[in-house]
Design brief:
The structure is a single chain. The chain has eleven helices and eight strands. With 251 residues, it is of the alpha/beta class. The protein has one domain: TIM Barrel (Alpha-Beta Barrel), CATH 3.20.20. It has an eight-stranded parallel barrel, surrounded by five helices. α1 packs parallel to α2.
Length: 251
C-alpha cells in the first residue's frame, strides 16, 4: 500500500484581522511540535498572506483560498498564481463549493485555475462535492465524477496534488457525513482520478475530507483508509481547536 503523509489544511475563509492573525500564529508556533506527523497548511484571506508567511514557522506551509487563471493583466480585483508564489505560497484552494455557489465558479473555470496553479508550481487543493439535493437524489458519484473529470480535462498531472471531498450540505452546517460514507465516496474519487491520471498517481494523491470537521469527529474520519486528512473551516479559526485536529490527523 502506498504511504500518503496526512495533511491538515486550515481554510480561514473571510475571517481575521492582522492582530487576530498574529495572535493565532503566536499560539500555533508555541504549541506545534517542531516535527509533526502530518503536513500543516494555513489558508488565510489574501490580505493576511504576506504577514502569515513571515509569522509561520517552517513546519507550516501557506496557501491561498483562490487564484485567477492569468498570470497578470487588466483583471481588477484578481490575484494570480505568480503573485501567490512570489510572496511564499505553496498551496491554493481551487473550486471550493462557496466559490461555485456564490461566485459562479464552473468546472471550466476550475480547470483553467488548476492549470494556472500548476504552471506556477503551486499545489492545488481541488474541491469536489455534492449538494443536499444531489445527495438525496442519489447523484453523489455522478456529480463528483463530472467535477473531477471536467476540472482536470487536458491537464497533465505529475507532482504534488491534493483533492478535498466536501459534501456541500455539511459545510458550515454542523452536520458531517458519516466517516464510512465519506470513505466510500473518496475511494470512488480515487478510482476516477486513476482513470484520469493513472493508478500510481491516484494511489499517492492525498484526498482530504471537509465539511464541519471538528476536534471531536476528526479521529473517526482519520480511521478510514481512504481519508488522508482534513480541510478545516470554522474549527481552524481557533488555534487550540486547530492544534487538536492537527494532532488527531498526525496520530
Amino acid at each position: 500500500m502506498t504511504h500518503r503523509r496526512p495533511l491538515a489544511a486550515a481554510n480561514w475563509k473571510m475571517n481575521k484581522t492582522l492582530a487576530e492573525c498574529a495572535s493565532f500564529f503566536e499560539t500555533l508556533n508555541a504549541k506545534l511540535p517542531k516535527s509533526t506527523a502530518c503536513d500543516v497548511v494555513v489558508c488565510p484571506p489574501f490580505t493576511l498572506l504576506e504577514r502569515s508567511v513571515s509569522l509561520a514557522r517552517n513546519q507550516v506551509a501557506l496557501g491561498a483560498q483562490d487564484l485567477f487563471w492569468e498570470a497578470q493583466g487588466a483583471y481588477t480585483g484578481e490575484i494570480s498564481g505568480m503573485m501567490l508564489r512570489d510572496i511564499g505560497c505553496k498551496y491554493v484552494i481551487i473550486g471550493h463549493s462557496e466559490r461555485r455557489q456564490h461566485f459562479g465558479e464552473t468546472n471550466q473555470s476550475v480547470n483553467k485555475k488548476v492549470s494556472a496553479a500548476l504552471k506556477q508550481s503551486l499545489v492545488p487543493i481541488l474541491c469536489v462535492g455534492e449538494t443536499l439535493q444531489e445527495m438525496e437524489s442519489g447523484r453523489t458519484k455522478q456529480v463528483v465524477q463530472t467535477q473531477l473529470e471536467e476540472g482536470l480535462k487536458g491537464i497533465s498531472l505529475q507532482g504534488d496534488f491534493v483533492l478535498a471531498y466536501e459534501p456541500v450540505w455539511a459545510i458550515g452546517t454542523g452536520k458531517s457525513d458519516t466517516p464510512e460514507q465519506s470513505n466510500q465516496t473518496i475511494g470512488f474519487v480515487r478510482t476516477v482520478l486513476a482513470k484520469a491520471a493513472g493508478q500510481e498517481f491516484a494511489a499517492r494523491t492525498r484526498i482530504l475530507y471537509g465539511g464541519s470537521v471538528k476536534p471531536d469527529n476528526i479521529k473517526a474520519f482519520m480511521a478510514q483508509p481512504e481519508i488522508d486528512g482534513g480541510l478545516v473551516g470554522g474549527a481552524s479559526l481557533d488555534p487550540h481547536s486547530f492544534l487538536s485536529i492537527v494532532e488527531a490527523i498526525g496520530a
